[in-house]
Specification:
Elements lengths: L2 E6 L6 H9 L17 E6 L5 H9 L3 E3 L2 E6 L18 H5 L3 E7 L15 H25 L5 H15 L11 H6 L11 E6 L2 H6 L1 H14 L9 E5 L1 H7 L4 H10 L5 H7 L1 H12 L2 E6 L10 E8 L5 H8 L1 H6 L8 H16 L3
Helix pairs in contact: 1-9, 1-12, 2-15, 4-5, 10-11
The protein binds guanosine-5'-diphosphate (GDP) and magnesium ion.
Magnesium ion (MG) binds next to α1.
GO molecular function: ATP binding; metal ion binding
Organism: Cyclotella atomus
Keywords: ATP-binding, Metal-binding, Nucleotide-binding
């Protein structure tokens, strides 16, 4: 399963800076003027797994260990009136339609040197501008589809319901569609049907020294958003600028630096940085699981231990095999369930003990 996640928000709020911080390298242009990003940037981001992949690769004696990735997409900023062609318009939203989740970046830092498209920092008002543009973009997308003669049956019925909801200011995910109704309009890629993670980009000082207050403020903002349903959506706090500065340092350099600036519990802060935490948050919100496959034959024939992403729901071994590869499904003969931790412990300690010189 390929998981794509789009960074959406007003121009100049820190999307590209956050994109680079999460990618841990400078890919996107991040400059202090609106619409610096025109063409979308895409990069794979590994999903952290407590090193399970590497431990399993060791057990399987694989030469290669491939982690699972989500694909992070950085697009141009959206402004008030984009649906009528303001700013760069909303042409680039076609890219977002192909994504599974929206990361909505909201500026919450006060740096007076950074230009704000509307002249003042107001996280709730800014987020609502973007939410309204997403809603209007969906409305015109739905209406264009309804005009087509090929729009019939279930699809037409559900779209009429969605159109009514959108006209009343409800995002498609709040209309109460059943999963089969959602399935019938899946190909449209409605933006307001996608789960949203609101990311409040705060001042670095607040981020480093006062996380609890920053989180409480972010929660208060999220609760004021008309279309934020915290049952489905989620929120987090980042400092794009600070995290981007850290991203070029090795783990050890990060630890030394965080200690030197007196960051409360530097090591824990490293775990909280967006490049580690965001992929896990996306995994949670989309309800995904990681599955590992490794060589069951001699290392000469198959050398890779690989991580796969699948939707998290209980399925049979045969269905799971089918999700990974048709050939694996055809060849399934037997399944044995072992706790991964037991397997790893046996391999790292049991074997060493067995092989230890007398
Ligand atoms: N002070 C401060 N500046 C930031 C932060 N994040 C981004 N910026 C600055 O804001 C400007 C716009 O950032 P950019 O990532 O290009 O915004 P985008 O248009 O949303 O992609 C750049 O000059 C960044 O250095 C932040 O957390 N704090
Ligand atoms: Mg940008």
């Amino acid at each position: 399963m390929k998981v794509k996640v789009a960074l959406v928000g007003l121009p100049n709020v820190g999307k590209s800076t956050l994109f680079n911080a999460i990618a841990q390298k400078s890919i996107a242009d991040a400059k202090n003027f609106p619409f610096c990003t025109i063409e979308p940037n895409v990069t794979p981001i590994p999903i952290p797994d407590d090193n399970l992949l590497h431990k399993l690769a060791l057990v399987a004696k694989s030469k290669k260990a491939l982690p699972a990735h989500i694909f992070l997409v950085d697009v141009a900023g959206l402004v008030k009136g984009a649906s009528r062609g303001e700013g760069l318009g909303n042409q680039f939203l076609a890219t977002v339609r192909e994504c599974n989740l929206i990361i909505h970046v909201v500026r919450s830092h006060d740096d007076a040197d950074v230009i704000h498209v509307d002249g003042k920092v107001d996280p709730v008002a800014d987020a609502e501008v973007v939410n309204l543009e997403l809603l209007l973009a969906d409305l015109s997308h739905v209406q264009r589809r309804l005009e087509k003669s090929t729009c019939i049956g279930d699809e037409k019925e559900v779209l009429l319901k969605v159109e009514k909801g959108l006209e009343n200011g409800l995002p498609a995910r709040s209309i109460g569609l059943s999963s089969s109704e959602e399935f019938s309009i899946k190909s449209l890629g409605l933006l307001t049907l996608k789960p949203v993670v609101y990311i409040f980009n705060v001042d670095e000082v607040d981020y480093i020294y006062d996380r609890d207050t920053s989180m409480a403020t972010a929660e208060a903002y999220a609760k004021q958003l008309q279309y934020c349903d915290l049952e489905k959506d989620s929120f987090a706090v980042v400092s794009a600028k600070f995290e981007n500065e850290l991203s070029t340092k090795s783990d050890e350099e990060k630890r030394v630096y965080l200690d030197s600036i007196g960051a409360v519990d530097g090591l824990n802060l490293n775990e909280q940085l967006s490049y580690r935490r965001l992929p896990l948050l996306v995994k949670d919100v989309l309800d995904l699981e990681l599955v590992y496959t490794g060589p069951g034959v001699s290392p000469e024939r198959s050398q890779t231990t690989k991580t796969h992403i699948i939707p998290s729901k209980s399925i049979s071994v045969l269905d799971l095999a089918g999700k990974l590869h048709g050939d694996i499904q055809k060849g399934v003969m037997n399944a044995e369930v072992i706790r991964a931790t037991d397997l790893i412990q046996y391999e790292t300690y049991g074997r060493q003990r067995l092989c230890a010189p007398k």
